[in-house]
C-alpha cells in the first residue's frame, strides 16, 4: 500500500527524503538550498578546538559523489488557506483556525492515545504540516495523500513511520549519527553551574556579563559549562520523549572597549538547528510569551519577570516556519529581539508570520536595551515589556504614531542606511548601504562581467548575514556557486583541491539559497517562489539574473518596453510589500561601442526608471594599459541622492573586483540631480582630464629637476678635486 502511495506522490514524497535530524526540515517544494546537502562524503570526522571557539572539523579525504538531488523544481500551483480549508471540509476533518496554522486531530496518533485532540498543524501559508506528538512532517501534498489512503482503506490512523521512514542516504545517516554522538559527548562532558566552585562560576558569569543570572535560573534552563573552551552550553530538548537533540555552544571574548563579543557554534549545524530555547518550560496553559533573539535574553526575562520566554535559534536572522506550531498556543506574543534597528525590522517581519493581532513589539532605544543588558543595568524588565507597542498597523495613522519611528531613524542614522559592503567601500560612500525594500537595477555591456560582479556584490552582503536568494536564469547554479565559492575563498580550487572541503564547509554556513529555474520563466511563478522563500527563509535580498528571461518570446513582438515596465513594476511591488531588496540585472539596449551606457540605455520609458531606487551601471572602457578595468557608476540613488563613479580592477585569479590602489583614482561624488548622467559624465571627464594634466605637469617637473642636477654635476666636476669627484660618483651610484 505504501509503495503505491509513494508512487502516486513520487515528486512530493521525494522531497521528504532529505536529511533530517529528528526534527529537521525537508527541502521546501518551491526552492532548494543548493548546498545544504554536502556533495562529498565525510569519512573521518573529529573535533577541533581553536582559541575560545568551538568548531566542527574533519580531516581526511572524501569520496566524491555526484549529487543529483541538489535542485528541485518549483511547485506548479501554490496552495492557499482557502484551498486547505475547502479540502478539509470536503473530507469532514474538523479544524481550528489558528494564528499561523490550522489545527486538526493528528492522523498519526491512535485516537485513544491522543493527548491533545488537535496536535497536527498545517501552515496556512505553505500547507506544510507538523504533528507535534510524533514529529511527522511533510508537504500539503503528502498530507493529502495520507488522508486519501486513510479514507480509502478506512483506517483510524497512520503510523508516523510513513513520513519518517523515507530514509536518507547512507552517508547522511552516518553524518546524523555522528552529530548525535557529538551532542551526547559535549553534553556529558559539560558541567552544571551548581557543580562548579563558587569562584569559578562567578568568573564565567563575569566573562559573559551575566553576573545577575542566578544558578537557579541556569539550572532551570539546563545551561551548563563546557570547560575545554569555557563555553556556555544551551541544550535543545524536544520531541515526544523530550530527548536531547542538539546543543549550542557560546563563547565570549572581551574587547578593549569592555564590550563582549560572542561566538556561537551548534551541533547539528546552524541551518538544521531548530531549537526554541526554553520550550520545555512552557506550560500547556500558558497564553503569553516573550520571544527573544538570544538564549541569555530569555534567561534574563524569565528570571526578572517570571514570564514564559523562548529564544529563537538563529537570532534575528530568521523565524523558520517549522517553529510556528510551537507558538500557536499563545494569545499574546511580545517580541523583544534586541537593541538595534535590525532587531526592530526583524520583529516587524516576524510578527507578520505570527499574526499581527497577537503581537506586540519592544522598540529598541536608550531605555530599552536587550533583556540581558537591561537586567545587568538594573532596569525594570516587566515595565519595558508592558510598554511594548501593538504590531498591527492601520492604513491611516497620525504623526503621533509615527513620531517614535522618525526619532529612531534619526538616532540610528548609520543603521538606517543599511548593511555596509565589506569589499566595496566606494559603494558605501555613494549608496551608504544596502537597505531592505529597495529595487536596484544593474546593467552593463554584454559579457562585461555583470554576473561576476553582482555575484561578489551579493556574496559580500550575504557574508554579513543578509539572507540571499539567487534567481540565475542564464547560468546554471553549479557554475554560479563555483564563481561565488572562488570569490568567497579568493582563490581557485582547480590546483588546490585539498582546500575544497575547508572552504565548502564555511560556504555552506552562509544564508544563501538558489532558485532552480533555468531559461525562460513566467514572472508569476518567479514571484510566487520569491514570496515563498521570504516566508520560509526570511530572505532579505533577491538577485534576478536577468530580466530578459521573464520577457517571454511571444511578447517581444507586442510591446517590448511595456512588458519590461510591467515586470519591473511587479518586482518593485514585491520589494516594498515584502521588505526585501531586489537586485535586477537587465541587458542594455544596443549601444554604439565607443559610447558609455546611461540610464536611458536600459529603460523603455521614464516610468521604469522611476520604479528603481538605485541604478548601477558597469561601464566598460577598453584601455590598452588596463584591459580588465571597469567602472561602476551609480546614476540613481533614491536614499540620499548621491551618485558617482569609481574604477574597478578585475582579479582573474579570484574572480573578484577591487578598487585600484588609492590615490591613483579619486572617487568622484556628485550630489544634486540624481539621474543626470550627462552631468556625471562631464564631471568624470573633467576629473580624468585634471588627472592627466597633473601627471603631465609632474613629468615635466621631474625632467626639469633632472636637467638641473646634470648641470650642477657638470659644474661641480670642473671645480672640485678628484677626491670629491670620487665621493660624488659614489653617491650618484647609490
Ligand atoms: N573585468 C573583467 N575583465 C575581464 N574579464 C572579466 C571581467 N569581469 C568578468 N570577466 C569574465 O568575463 C566572462 C563573462 O562574465 P559575466 O558572465 O559575468 O558577464 P555578463 O556581463 O554577465 O555576461 P552576459 O552579458 O552574457 O550576461 C567570465 O568568464 C568572467 O570571468
Task: Give your account of this protein's structure.
This is Twinkle mtDNA helicase. One of its GO terms (molecular function) is 5'-3' DNA helicase activity. It is a peripheral membrane protein. With 734 residues, the protein is α/β, with parallel strands linked by helices. It folds into 4 domains: 2-32 and 72-164, no CATH class; 189-391, Dna Topoisomerase Vi A Subunit, Chain: A, domain 2; 425-675, Rossmann fold, CATH 3.40.50.300; 701-733, no CATH class. The chain has 24 helices and 27 strands. The strands form 5 sheets. Strands 18, 19, 20, 21, 22, 23, 24, 25, 26 and 27 form a 10-stranded mixed beta sheet that branches. Strands 3-4-5-6-7 form a 5-stranded antiparallel beta sheet. It has a 5-stranded antiparallel beta sheet with strand order 8-9-10-11-12, covered by helices on one side. β6 (129-131) and β7 (137-138) form a beta hairpin. Bound molecules: adenosine-5'-triphosphate. Adenosine-5'-triphosphate binds next to α17.
Briefly note the CATH topology name of the largest domain. Rossmann fold
Q: How many DSSP-defined strands?
A: 27
Largest beta-sheet characterization = 10 strands, mixed
Structural class: alpha/beta
Helix content: 25-40%
CATH C-level name of the largest domain: Alpha Beta
Name the poorly predicted regions.
Answer: 1-73, 663-678, 720-725
Overall average residue pLDDT: 79
The proportion of strand residues reads 15-25%
Shape: globular
Number of helices: 24
CATH architecture of the largest domain: 3-Layer(aba) Sandwich
Which ions, cofactors or small ligands are bound in this entry?
A: adenosine-5'-triphosphate
The rounded Rg comes to 30 Å
CATH homology-level superfamily of the largest domain:
P-loop containing nucleotide triphosphate hydrolases
Q: How many independent structural domains? A: 4
Cα-to-Cα separation, first versus last residue:
92 Å
Amino acid at each position: 500500500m505504501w509503495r503505491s502511495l509513494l508512487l502516486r506522490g513520487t515528486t512530493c514524497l521525494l522531497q521528504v527524503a532529505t536529511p533530517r535530524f529528528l526534527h529537521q526540515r525537508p527541502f521546501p517544494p518551491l526552492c532548494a538550498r543548493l548546498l545544504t546537502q554536502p556533495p562529498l562524503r565525510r569519512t573521518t570526522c573529529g573535533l577541533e578546538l581553536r582559541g575560545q571557539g568551538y568548531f566542527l572539523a574533519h580531516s581526511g579525504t572524501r569520496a566524491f559523489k555526484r549529487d543529483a538531488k541538489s535542485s528541485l523544481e518549483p511547485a506548479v500551483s501554490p496552495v492557499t488557506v482557502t484551498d486547505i480549508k475547502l479540502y478539509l471540509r470536503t473530507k469532514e476533518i474538523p479544524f481550528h483556525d489558528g494564528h499561523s496554522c490550522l489545527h486538526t486531530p493528528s492522523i498519526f496518533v491512535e485516537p485513544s492515545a491522543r493527548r491533545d485532540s488537535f496536535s497536527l498543524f498545517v501552515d496556512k501559508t505553505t500547507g506544510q504540516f507538523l504533528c507535534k506528538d510524533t514529529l511527522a512532517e511533510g508537504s500539503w501534498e503528502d498530507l493529502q495523500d495520507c488522508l486519501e489512503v486513510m479514507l480509502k482503506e478506512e483506517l483510524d490512523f497512520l503510523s508516523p513511520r510513513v513520513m519518517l521512514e523515507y530514509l536518507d542516504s547512507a552517508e547522511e545517516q552516518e553524518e546524523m549519527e555522528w552529530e548525535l554522538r557529538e551532542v551526547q559527548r559535549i553534553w556529558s562532558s559539560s558541567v552544571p553551574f551548581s557543580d562548579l566552585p563558587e569562584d569559578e562560576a562567578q568568573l564565567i558569569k563575569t566573562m559573559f556579563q551575566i553576573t545577575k543570572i542566578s544558578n537557579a535560573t541556569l539550572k532551570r534552563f539546563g545551561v551548563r559549562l563546557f570547560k575545554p573552551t569555557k563555553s556556555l552550553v544551551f541544550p535543545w530538548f524536544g520531541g515526544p520523549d523530550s530527548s536531547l537533540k542538539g546543543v549550542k555552544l557560546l563563547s565570549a571574548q572581551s574587547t578593549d572597549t569592555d564590550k563582549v563579543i560572542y561566538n556561537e557554534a551548534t551541533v547539528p549545524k546552524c541551518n538544521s538547528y531548530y531549537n526554541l530555547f526554553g520550550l520545555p518550560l512552557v506550560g500547556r496553559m500558558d497564553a503569553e510569551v516573550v520571544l527573544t533573539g538570544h538564549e541569555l535574553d530569555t534567561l534574563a526575562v524569565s528570571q526578572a519577570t517570571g514570564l514564559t520566554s523562548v529564544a529563537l535559534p538563529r537570532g534575528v536572522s530568521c523565524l523558520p516556519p517549522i517553529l510556528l506550531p510551537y507558538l500557536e498556543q499563545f494569545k499574546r506574543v511580545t517580541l523583544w529581539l534586541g537593541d538595534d534597528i535590525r532587531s526592530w525590522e526583524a520583529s516587524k517581519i516576524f510578527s507578520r508570520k505570527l499574526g499581527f493581532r497577537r503581537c506586540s513589539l519592544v522598540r529598541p532605544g536608550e531605555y530599552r536595551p536587550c533583556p540581558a543588558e537591561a537586567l545587568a543595568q538594573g532596569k525594570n524588565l516587566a515595565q519595558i515589556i508592558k510598554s511594548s507597542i501593538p504590531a498591527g498597523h492601520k492604513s491611516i495613522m497620525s504623526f503621533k504614531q509615527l513620531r517614535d519611528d522618525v526619532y529612531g531613524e534619526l538616532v540610528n542614522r548609520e543603521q538606517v542606511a543599511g548593511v555596509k559592503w565589506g569589499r566595496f567601500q566606494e559603494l558605501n560612500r555613494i549608496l551608504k548601504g544596502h537597505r531592505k525594500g529597495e529595487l536596484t537595477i544593474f546593467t552593463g555591456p554584454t559579457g562585461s562581467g555583470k554576473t561576476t560582479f553582482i555575484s561578489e556584490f551579493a556574496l559580500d552582503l550575504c557574508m554579513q548575514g543578509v539572507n540571499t536568494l539567487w534567481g540565475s536564469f542564464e547560468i546554471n547554479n553549479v557554475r554560479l556557486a563555483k564563481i561565488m565559492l572562488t570569490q568567497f575563498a579568493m582563490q581557485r580550487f582547480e590546483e588546490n583541491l585539498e582546500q575544497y572541503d575547508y572552504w565548502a564547509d564555511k560556504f555552506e554556513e552562509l544564508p544563501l539559497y538558489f532558485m532552480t529555474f533555468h531559461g525562460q520563466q513566467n514572472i508569476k511563478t518567479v514571484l510566487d517562489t520569491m514570496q515563498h522563500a521570504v516566508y520560509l527563509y526570511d530572505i532579505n535580498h533577491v538577485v534576478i539574473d536577468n530580466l530578459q528571461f521573464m520577457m517571454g518570446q511571444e511578447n517581444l513582438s507586442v510591446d517590448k518596453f511595456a512588458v519590461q515596465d510591467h515586470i519591473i513594476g511587479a518586482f518593485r511591488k514585491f520589494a516594498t510589500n515584502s521588505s526585501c531588496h531586489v537586485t535586477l540585472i537587465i541587458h542594455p539596449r544596443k549601444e554604439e561601442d565607443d559610447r558609455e551606457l546611461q540610464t536611458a540605455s536600459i529603460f523603455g520609458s521614464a516610468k521604469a526608471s522611476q520604479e528603481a531606487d538605485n541604478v548601477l551601471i558597469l561601464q566598460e572602457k577598453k584601455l590598452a594599459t588596463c584591459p580588465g578595468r571597469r567602472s561602476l557608476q551609480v546614476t540613481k540613488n533614491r536614499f540620499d541622492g548621491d551618485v558617482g563613479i569609481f574604477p574597478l580592477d578585475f582579479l582573474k585569479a579570484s574572480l573578484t573586483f577591487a578598487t585600484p590602489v588609492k590615490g591613483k583614482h579619486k572617487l568622484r561624488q556628485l550630489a544634486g540631480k540624481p539621474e543626470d548622467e550627462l552631468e556625471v559624465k562631464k564631471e568624470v571627464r573633467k576629473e580624468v582630464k585634471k588627472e592627466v594634466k597633473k601627471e603631465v605637469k609632474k613629468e615635466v617637473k621631474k625632467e626639469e629637476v633632472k636637467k638641473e642636477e646634470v648641470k650642477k654635476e657638470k659644474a661641480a666636476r670642473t671645480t672640485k678635486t678628484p677626491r670629491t669627484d670620487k665621493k660624488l660618483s659614489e653617491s650618484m651610484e647609490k
